[in-house]
Amino acid sequence: MSYRRRKPFKACKKCGALVPHEELQCPVCGSREFSEDWEGMVIIVSKDSKTAKFIEKNKPHMYAIKVR
Hints:
The chain is mainly β. It has one helix spanning 50-54; strands at residues 10-12, 18-19, 34-35, 38-44, 61-67. It is globular, with a radius of gyration of 13 Å.
């Protein structure tokens, strides 16, 4: 029997922000469309970091690397 655990967050389909399942609206972009199917995670602490610029995120937050 295969048991698959639910991920602790859902990902915004528009910007990739990771939010708790009970959130109804993305705090980063305002979208209401989410996906449970995402991979990887990056945490942006500063919008001026090289990583933030590379993945084109200008707001500190947790983001999924890939959202389907």
